[in-house]
Amino acid sequence: MQTIVATRREVVRSLAARREELWRRALYAPPPRSFSAALREGREVALIAEVKRASPSRGMLRANLDPARLALSYQRGGARAVSVLTEERFFLGGEEDFRKVREAVDLPLLWKDFVLTPEQVYLARSRGADACLLIARLLLPEELILLLSACREVGIEALVEVHDEKDLQMALSSGAELIGVNNRDLESFRVDLSVTERLAGLIPPSATLVAESGIRSREDVERMARVGVDACLVGEALVVLPEEELGVRLRELTSVPRCRVAKKG
Fold this sequence. Notes:
Blueprint: H1 2-12, H2 19-27, H3 35-40, E1 46-51, E2 54-55, E3 59-60, H4 67-76, E4 81-85, H5 95-104, E5 109-112, H6 118-126, E6 131-135, H7 141-154, E7 157-162, H8 165-173, E8 178-182, H9 194-200, E9 208-212, H10 218-225, E10 231-234, H11 236-239, H12 243-253
Parallel strand pairs: 1-4, 1-10, 4-5, 5-6, 6-7, 7-8, 8-9, 9-10
Antiparallel strand pairs: 2-3
């Protein structure tokens, strides 16, 4: 993970010189869709379906991926939002994939990258993103506060990703209202759904809660629903499916009733 982050820092360094341009483009982008509102509407656990070509842990997932066609299938299958990988080297994503998805669907879109600087936030909003991912584990508390401020400045929501109690405390102290619990350890890549089960009760009911990673079946969504999640983010389990099976899986994942449970906070 440190290699990925170091590489990303090198890549995004050039954006600093474009700060003013990107900021202005972000301010004049079409109005954002409400990402969190889309996740909390309805009686079912919302699905954030992901457009993803590859991952460091699994390698190539779908070599001939058509981002627009896949995103349209997600929309027709009942997804409430779409996540698009925009990191180029390790996930083989990019701005072009995001552009194609933005033109194809009218769902809220998550810009999924290793966002480390305000310039990346401005870039995401200027390209039509409605939310961007901020990974607490990769940031200092003051960096997270700065990035959340940049998000508010240009009207983009932040999905703040956590993996343990320390990450969560940092996210809540920074004012995060949209929280994703990543069941995957970013160092070992081990996946454990009990991570969401453990942290869910520590999250205020006013926050929107998303379970990420390791969710492959209706049973997994039901397990997450029991601890009160508002949404599940699913990528690999959908991307690898043949088109004739995708619709069936989407119906399974989007039909689990939401279960509001008491949370501390």
